[in-house]
Each structure stands twice: as structure tokens, then as C-alpha cells.
Write a structure and sequence with these properties.
Blueprint (H helix, E strand, L loop, with lengths): L4 E5 L3 H13 L3 E5 L2 H10 L4 E4 L8 H9 L6 E5 L4 H10 L3 E4 L4 H20 L1 H4 L2 E4 L2 E4 L4 E4 L2 E3 L3 H11 L6 E2 H9 L7 H15 L9 E4 L3 E4 L3
Parallel strand pairs: 1-2, 1-3, 3-4, 4-5
Antiparallel strand pairs: 6-7, 7-8, 8-9, 10-12, 11-12
Length: about 230
Amino acid sequence: MNKSKILVIEDDPAITNLIRTTLDTQDYQYHTARTGSAGLMDAVAYNADVIILDLGLPDMDGVEIIRKIRGWSTVPIIVVSARSEDSDKVEALDAGADDYLTKPFSIDELLARLRAALRRRQLDDTGLAPQESVYRNGNLSIDYAAGCVYRDDREIHLTPIEYKLLCVLAKNTGKVLTHNYILKEVWGNAFSADASSLRVFMATLRKKIEENPATPQYIQTHIGVGYRMIRQ
């Protein structure tokens, strides 16, 4: 039986019932809240493994809830919202959300994002992620200690920027990273690159790690938002 605990903060009864039915079929434990204030209290008391959050709540904006939770917790937060503008997605992700699904959404996609969030949470809880010296994902591997990257056990020669980009994505596998987040992680607070430069570096990286850069297997683009490393 699946012991993972999911907190659902959603005020739409139809969406709540859909999510509850989905979680029931997968044997997840869950708790629901219909307001932001109730959700914040439950976030403290319920100790969920993942939070599914709507942004348009009756008493407060979901982005405010994300910021409040990030003040004391790293619990994965999956936003499920009718807001489809890129600016809304970027704001939520920059505030600390791990993922963003636009309504209406596929149940299979929700479950896939949920499984990815739970894997990240498990790694965080066990402390395995920082201790791993080699990252493996499909035919791609990164030897952090040696600073080397391999595809099909053959070394790939990356530039320093390409290597930094790949490491940032790899260490956040399954999580959507905004352009601003990646720029800060790779170039620091004093940006020496912008989103257009990032696209150029990402294109050269894909040519080296992807079997077919036109249909990328590892690095997924979220247009207007950022990038995600996909677990194979």
C-alpha cells in the first residue's frame, strides 16, 4: 500500500473530487483544504510528502501560500491552476513551486508529476542526493568528482558553461526550472547572459547529449518559462 501523504489545497469541488478519486485509485493517503488559511495550517499539521495547490483560492493567492511554506519547508509543491499565462507560471515557480499543471489536465500527467515529486522528496529525506558522486539517467551519466559527462559510456566534451547547465538540470531532475533560476545558478547574480543566450547554450548542450536534438529525450523546453530534465 502506498503510504505517501498528499495535501490538496483546492476550492473547486469538481476538481477536488477528481483528484481525490485519482489518489484513491493509487492508494495515496490525502487530506483536502478549501481555503489558503486552512491549507497553511494543514501544511504544518499534516506533514505531507507533496502539496497539490490551486492558485485561485477564495481568501488568498496561491503564490503567497508558496512563499509562506518555503519559509520553513522544502516539501514539493505542484501547482494545478486555470492560469495559463507564462508570467503566472514563472511567478509560481520562482516563488518556490516545483511543478505547474494547467487546468484542464490529464490524470496520467498529474500522477507522473506526483511520482517525480515523491522521488525528489525521498532523495531529500534520505540525504542520498548530495552524497551521490555519479548521476545516471538513461544512457547519460555525470561523474561530479571528475567533472566528466558520458553518453553510452563514451565521454562527451562540454564547455564549462554547458557542464554547469547540465549539472543544474540534473540536480533538479523532474523539476521545471525558470530561465531566471538557471541564469542565477550558472552565471551568478550579476547576469552576463539573458534568456536568448541561454537558449543558444542549451541548443549546443542538446547537440552533445541528445541522440536527436530535434526530439530531445533529456531536456524538455517549457516555452516562455524554462527547462526540465526528464527522468528516463
